[in-house]
Amino acid sequence: MAKASPHILVVDDDVVVLKFIEFTLKGLSYKTTLAKNGIEAIDKAKAEHFDLIISDLYMPLMDGNELVRHFRNTPEYKHTPFIFLSGNNEEETWIKNLNDGADDFITKPIKQKVFVSKINSHLKKAFLRKEIIAGKEKSDISYEKGTIIYCANRTRPFPIPRKLVKTNIKVVYTDSDFFMALQGANNWGIIIDDAAAWAMVILDKIVEITSTHVPLSLLISDPADSEKMDEFLKLKISTFLYKNLDAKLIVHQINSNIQREHELKNKYLNALNTAAKRSPIRFENEFSDELNDFQIRILHEPYDKLPGGDYYEIINVDEHCKIVVLGDVMGKKWDAWFFVPAYIAYIRSTINFFLNRQEFDFVKSPGKFLDIINQYIFKDMQLTEVFTTLSVISICTKRNKISVASAGALRPYYYNKSEGTISQLNIVGTLLGVIKTTKYQSLVHDFNKGDKVLFYTDGYTEAVNDKNNEMIGDDALFHSLNKFKLDSELQPQDIEEELTKTYNVSKFDDDRTLLLVQRN
């Protein structure tokens, strides 16, 4: 089945800008909806689903910052890419925009090549995020942890015998409650009562968002209404439930749908587990290395004891230098397991090739290495569709420096002993495999005695606090490092134990890796 064309909402009070963007996006075969102000944009977003939002910063009625804050507080748009347009290129303005929830900005006058590359980049990452979330949902197949979302009429809910249904039923009465429930870890299906007018108004939007990964059932009051049934049959609805049937028959059909989903997911997961266990890639869970007075400590835990997307590599340059790489392959669903060997091969061969030729200094310019790897990936027919984060860390004891380049990785925490401060290193970059012409920056930093730098993958930041059911974020890494910053023999295990205890994390639902470099 062909993928639906991305649907983009463009908000600007300048008609000329709207038409230019509409023309550009149509040339990319993207569906476009235009709005002249923030209030109109919000109204349109209630009726339709958008994959990306482009908005002017300065507009009447509602400025862009207020608009992005609104969307970030709306469950279904919490992670939707939001890009600002503005002629204001002052750094303080853009920092405020990013803090309010924007993902990126494009300056006016719009340069078409820059515009197109940024739109494509954010759409790819957004699509990838959805695939990763869907893949994680497939890993949890227990009835007890799953939910049926029932969209009901508040005054006249249909009496489904909930005790007879095999799983939990979450009843929702508003669109905001529905989209909040949709963020749950494992939804077995959605039931929409045709008497729930609020849900029927946005039925097209619900179908568009959910039909590819959550079965959708419609609870019909009058199956004899042929005109309505003809309209429903045009939609991607999995099953129809009829209110005029005996309640036991309705429950039987609901349970049959759940059972079918359970069996499909079970077969899917078992097949992947078998393949993953045969993978030749096995990393040491705990790794230690020394380079003069520099220490390298790694804690690596694959999800559910199976090889996954996280990977690391230590490469010796000479008696003064080492190169450490840390990455996370993010394939569609569970493809990451099978692409790690290819990435490792690229990394090893490329580093060894250029070390032997001595064409550039890895210690000064690890970003150039990412430039080359990114180009190679685009020549590979398979890897170009699978993205990866990658941090390249060069350690040089002769110069007492550490150099970092990043492709989509989380920003590491750096403890500066002389100043007694912990801060995130300002090194960011686009995921490998997203934009062919990306140029990656290198950050060279003095590394003195007592200094520490902590790298980590999103298996930690996306762990959930059992008490509030929220992701712990990177603040948890900051506080855990802060507790042990003075320890001369700090181990990654200490940081993980502190994190799990303080933030009430009983389990991790993804691969996770901590990389700690310290100088004693």
UniProtKB/TrEMBL annotation:
Domain Response regulatory: 7-123
Organism placement in taxonomy: Bacteria, Pseudomonadati, Bacteroidota, Bacteroidia, Marinilabiliales
Name of the protein described by the UniProt record: Response regulatory domain-containing protein
SUPFAM superfamilies assigned: CheY-like, PP2C-like
One annotated GO biological process: phosphorelay signal transduction system
Keywords: Hydrolase, Phosphoprotein
GO molecular function per UniProt: phosphatase activity
One family name in Pfam for this protein: Response_reg
